[in-house]
Amino acid sequence: MNTVVLAGVVFLLVVGGVIALVVRAVRGRDKQDEDGGLDLIPYLLLALFVGAAGFSLAALARASLTPDRLIGRPTGELAGALAGLVVAAPIAYFLGRRQARRRKSFPETPGWPVYLAIVELVFLTAFLAAVAQVAGFLSGDGDRADWTDLVIYGGIVGFHWWAERRERPMGDIGDLPRLVGSGVALVALTIGLIGTLEWLFSIAYDALSELDDVPDPAVAIALAVAGAAIWAWRWLPAWDEEPNVLRNFYVGFVTAFSLTMAIGAGVSMIATLLTFVLGDGGPAGDHFDDLPLSMAFVISGAGLWYHHSHRLGPGRTGARRGYEYAMAAAGLGALVGSTTALVEAAFTPTLAGTNSSATLITIASAVIASGWVWLAFWGKAQAAPRAEEARSLSRRVYLIGMAIVLGLTAAGSMIAVLVVVFRTVLGEVEASAGSLRVPITLTLTAGVATWHLFDQIRADSAGRERTVSRPFAVTVICSHPGTLSTRFPEEATVRVLYRGDDVGMIDDEMASAIVAAVDGRSSLVWVDESGFRLAATRES
Amino acid sequence: MEEDRRLPGWVLPVVGSVAVVALVVIGLNRSPDQFDPASPEGTVQSYVAALVAGDFESAATFWAEDDCLPASIEPTEGAPDISATLVSVDENDAEATVVIGITNNASDPLNGISEYQEWFTLVKDEGGWKIRQPSWPYYDQVCEASA
Fold this sequence. Notes:
- The complex is a heterodimer.
- By secondary structure, chain A is mainly alpha-helical.
- Chain A has helices at residues 2-32, 40-65, 75-105, 111-138, 147-166, 176-208, 218-235, 245-277, 284-287, 291-309, 318-347, 357-383, 386-389, 393-425, 433-468, 484-487, 508-518, and strands at residues 68-71, 472-478, 492-498, 523-528, 531-536.
- A four-stranded mixed sheet of chain A has the order 3-2-4-5, with helices on one face.
- In chain A, helix 4 runs parallel beside helix 6 (176-208).
- Chain A is globular and about 90 Å long.
- In chain B, strands 2-3-4-5 form a four-stranded antiparallel sheet, with helices on one face. A two-stranded antiparallel ribbon of chain B has the order 1-6.
- The radius of gyration of chain B is 21 Å and the shape is elongated.
- Chains A and B meet through helix 1, helix 2, strand 1 and helix 3 of A and helix 2, helix 3, strand 2 and strand 3 of B.
């Protein structure tokens, strides 16, 4: 009994202390921070306590309502959930009220969208997991159905959607909650779509040639339906603002990922077909039984790619650059890896017979596909005007990021080679060509790729220095300049003369084209209904 | 206009508190579900209920083998502070597997609770089911043949 009393006292002291500390901290900030600041710490605390309260409430509902109880009362579960609620809910409530008051004075602080994004990421994921669990149970494939999770997590997500509509997050980071929600829902939609298509193709394949296992579609269909509905709700409505770096990153990444998914599955299908044609496939029914899954990946990836690639924007927008450099990175990384794997597979000695043609064909297909992807997308980047391209964030991330990753890979492989060489020189072991095959190949392939990347970084830097050292002036005659002036480098002095009519509007695509055509030289630009014309002017 | 649509500050805490209290009351007053004793889950329910009550001899009657003696590891008398829920039943004409979730409340409140799952394998026996492979670590069986 004494232990219980002591535990209660300690519990109350801890809870009271936490509340006092939080209140003191946020009050202090009120006085110090007159412009609102980032306001991140209170919102992160709010997200933490809302999370604890939400999961505790879900645990409480599960214990009270859902399980098929065999014996006993759920006192342990109730006690644990109540403890979490008693601590987290009051703090979350008071912090929420406090932040609501602050939002009236400082509506543009980034803490609000960050908080909404965290809650959406956590509870939308939990909600979709509950959807899958309940669907599995209803189809007779799952162990239990915690339907209360659907209600609690769905309620929390819905409440925050309502709060977001009531008080729109502002600024560049204001898109974050919608992007996070779109991304989480898109993952569920993709998983569900792939599972549903695999089920359909498996039924068709099973009719042609008996299949060992036709997957159960319930969870996949449920995820596809729920994911599609939420994705449509979060992604499809018009956006308040022009695309910014966050949305460009999202669109570029999703477009690249979906195309990679489709190409990867397509390569697998081609390799399977080639293996069979070349006579190393065994019975056709068994050999092609991966086709339903591969086709599901290809169709899902192609569909997602089609949708998102039409939202990259005209011209070399940030989203398009992000997409193309992400594809180039994926292609280059896969090229280095698959080339190394091909050398290993081709020269590995066999105990009997020859190396598996299926393995060689699959890896060779991957080498060809990744090489083609890299060449195609790197070629697009190189075809764009270098002066503008070299300043883009996507290109720098691609060149520097890949140079670091591949450079470290090459260095690590070289260390592995040298360890064997030095041990041989010192007479400890006999050098084995087999043990050196992978590290030598990786050193060469990753090394060449790194050299190429550093060469491009050097060329970009030289171009930037040349541009930086030469100011220039551009005079534009147009109806409206749009975003043109923001696209020129700092060295440019842009003067706009308005035409007084509507036939010379400059959109984003034309702005990019004008900047590329000017290419750092003093120019006069004339915009009319036929596009733009450019004349070089004397350097000022 | 925005201000008019805002709920009074006391609504959320009051509604939340009422919901929490209601859930606790429901949870505490909910009696265990009654499964058909002739079903696999009903057999496991009866077996576990006998164990919790400390009635080891009754528990042993649910075993498929007759000449087995109870061998308690820990504790030596029932466990009133546990609750068990049915997780899954996988059944065919001859055999069934029942998975239950067990929540064991520690006697010391600061030690919290432990949650784990136990698997029971049952075989069909004269219209009912018998437990061929008892689970639950604190109560095992030692059969005469091997004892």
